[in-house]
Amino acid sequence: MTATRATLAGLAGLAALVALALAVGAQGFGWGDGGAWALLRAPRVLAALAAGLALGVGGAAQQGVFRNPLADPGLTGVFGGALFGLALLLGAAPETAWRHAWLLPAAAFAGALGSSALLVLCGRGGSSARLLLTGLGLNAFTAAGTLVIAARSGESRELLTNGAYGDWLGMATFELTWLPALLCLAATLLLLPKARALDLLAFGDDAARGFGADVAGVRRDAVLLTALAAAAATCLVGQVAFIGLLAPHLARALVGPRHAAVLPGSALLGGALLLVADTLGRGLWAEAPLSAAAVTAVLGAPLFIWIARSQHD
Amino acid sequence: MTEPCVECVALAVEIAGRRIVDGVSLRAEPGQVVAVVGPNGAGKTTLLRALAGLVASTGGLRVAGEDPRAAPAGAAARRRAYCAQQPVSAWDYRVRDLGEIAQAAAFADRLAELGLAELADRRLSRLSGGERKAAHLAMTLAAVGEPYGALLVLDEPTASLDLARQALVAAAIRGFVRAGGAAVVATHDLAYARACETVVVLAEGRAVGLGAPPAALTPVVVAATWGAAVPAGA
Predict the structure, then answer these.
(1) Residues of B with CB below 8 A from A210's CB?
(2) What CATH code is carried by the domain that includes residue A178?
(3) Which of A12, A76, A239, B203 has the most CB atoms around its CB within 10 Å?
(4) What is the model's pLDDT at position B78?
C-alpha cells in the first residue's frame, strides 16, 4: 500500500469513527434530542480527536528522540508535569486561570517543559531503565504535587482529581476546547517534517551528525513540540497514559519504522484510539461512564508489559 | 601540490581533563588510504571522530577544503562520511531504507559492491552481524555523493566480517580513493595497514610512528607499541 493510499484509508477510517462517536450518546445510539450531537458531543469528539493526534505523534517523536520504544510522555512524566503546571496555576490563582483562554495551556506547557528538561538532563544517553526510572520519579513527584495542591484548594479539588484520572473529556465545550485543540494540531503538523532527522537519530548521535543532521537542533525542537503536544492534550483530557506508547507501536507494525510513515500513522491511530476509548467508555455503561484514560489503561497495560518483555537491553 | 582530502596539524582532543588525542598531524591526498593502528585505548576512535568533526578538538584541521568543526552539518555530510565501529539502529529498518534515509542515490551500487544486493528488502534484525555492518558501510560510502576530494572515515570497517567480505570492503575503499577520495581507516589488521599508503601508529594518544608502512611500522615501533607478544614482522 502506498503512503498516500494508507493516509487516505486512515483518514476515511477516522471520519467513520467520528461519525460513530457523534451518534453515541447517554440514551443509546442516535443523534439525540435538540441537536445533542452538535452541542454536547461535537466538542467532546473534537477534544478526544485532537488530544489523540497529539498524544500519538508526541509518543512517536519522544521514542525517536530517546531511541527508545518504551518512551511515552505518559510514562516519562511529561504529562505529569503538564498537569502539575495546571495544578500550580489553579491552586495559586484560580480566578485568573479561567479569565484568559491561553493561561491554562501556558501553565501546562511550562510544567511539561520542566519535566522534559529534567528527563533530558537525567535520562538521556542511558539505558531504557534510566529513562523510565527518571520518568517514574517525575511521575511520582508531579502526581503527589498535584494531589497536595488539589487537597488544599477547595474549588479546584474535584477538577484536579478528575484530571489526574484523565476524566476531563466530559466537560468539553467549544469554548474550552478550541485553543488546546488548535495547539494539538499545530504540534502535530510541526512534528511531521522532523521525520528524516528522527530517522537519522536512530543511528546514534555521531552517525546522525555524520549524515548531516543538526542533532542538537532536532532534539530541542522535538522535545519542545512533544511538551506542547502533551500540554495541549492534558488540557483536553487530563492524564492519559499508553496512547503515546500504543499508537507508535501499532503504526510501526502497520507501516514500518520510517518516521515519514510512523509520525502521521501514529497521529491518526492516536486520534482513533482515544476516540474509541472515550466512545466505549460513555457508550457501554451510560449510567456510569468510564473515563477515556481508564479504557486506554485497560487496553494499554497488557500491551506495555508485552513490549517490555520483548525488549533486549 | 594537490589539495589534500584531509590534513590535521597538532590535533588534540581533551575529554574530562584527559588528553585522548595528543598532537597528531597527518595528511592524505586523493588516492590515499591512511591506516590508524594501535592497541585498545590508544585513541584511534577519538582521532577518527575528531577528523570527522564529531568531537571538539584543537589544532589545525581541514577536510575536503574546509574545517568540519565550523561547517554546517548538512554541507559537511556530502564531503566526508563516518562509520562507527559498531553501527547501531534503534529501529528495525529494511536495508534499502538506509539508502533513502541517507538520501544516497548510489546506495544500490554500494550495496552490490559489498555483496548485499539481494538483501535490500531484509530487515536489519534478519541480517548477520557482518551483513549488518556491511549494510551500514554501504550507507556511509553512498552518503558521499561524489568521491573526488572527499574523505571516508571508517572505524574498524572489517572487524567482525568474514574473509570474503573483508576483501569486498577493502576493494570498496580502494575504489573510493581511486575515484579521487581519501580514507582514514582504524584497524587492528597490520597486514591491511601495510598495504595502505600511510600508517599512523597511536599509543596513548600520540603518533609514535607515522609515514609509509615500512617507515611507520618498524620492528622497534611494533615492539614498543604492542610488546613482545606481536612478532616484529606482523
Answers:
(1) 52, 54, 77, 80-83, 140, 143
(2) 1.10.3470.10
(3) A76
(4) 83
C-alpha distances in angstroms, B102 versus A202, A203, B95, B109, B196?
12, 11, 12, 14, 28
Residues of A with CB under 8 A from a CB of B: 64, 67-69, 196, 199-204, 206-207, 209-215, 252, 256-258
Question: What CATH number does the domain containing B15 carry?
Answer: 3.40.50.300
Does B52 reside within a domain? yes
How many structural domains compose chain A? 1
Per the model's pLDDT, the better-predicted residue between A189 and A152 turns out to be A189
Mutation target for B interface from A200, A206, A215, A219: give the one with most B CBs within 10 A: A206
Environment class of A190 (CB within 10 Å of its CB; exposed 0-12, middle 13-18, buried 19+)? middle
Phi-psi region of B16 (alpha: psi -120 to 50; beta: other; left: phi over 0): left
Cell reading at A182? 488548535
ipTM: 0.91
Does a structural domain hold residue B231? no
Task: Determine, yes or no, domain membership for B105.
Answer: no
**Tell me, what's the pLDDT at A305?**
83
Q: Is B69 on the interface with A (CB under 8 A)?
A: no
Range of the domain at B32: 6-88+150-162+170-226
Is it the case that residue A128 has pLDDT exceeding 70? no
For residue A126, pLDDT over 80 is answered with: no
Return the DSSP state at B38. -
Residue ranges making up the domain that contains A127: 3-309
pLDDT at A313 over 50: no
Q: Residue B62: name the closest of B70, B30, B36 by CA.
A: B70
Q: Could you say which of A64, A204, A212 has the minimum Cβ distance to residue B73?
A: A212
pTM over the 0.95 mark: no
Residue B94 lies in a domain: no
3-state secondary structure of B61: strand
Q: What is the pLDDT of residues A142-187, one digit of tens each?
A: 999 998 998 888 788 888 888 888 889 888 888 889 999 999 999 9
Q: How confident is the model at residue A9 (pLDDT cuts 50, 70, 90)?
A: confident
Closest by CA to A38, choosing from A191, A186, A173, is A173
Contact criterion met (CB below 8 Å) for B38 and B224: no
Mean pLDDT by 10 residues, chain B (234 residues): 88 94 95 96 96 95 91 83 93 95 91 94 94 95 89 94 94 95 96 96 95 94 84 63
Residues linked to residue A36 through DSSP beta bridges, in sequence order:
none
Rounded Cα distance between A59 and A71, Å, is 7
Chain A residues closer than 8 Å to B51 by CB: none
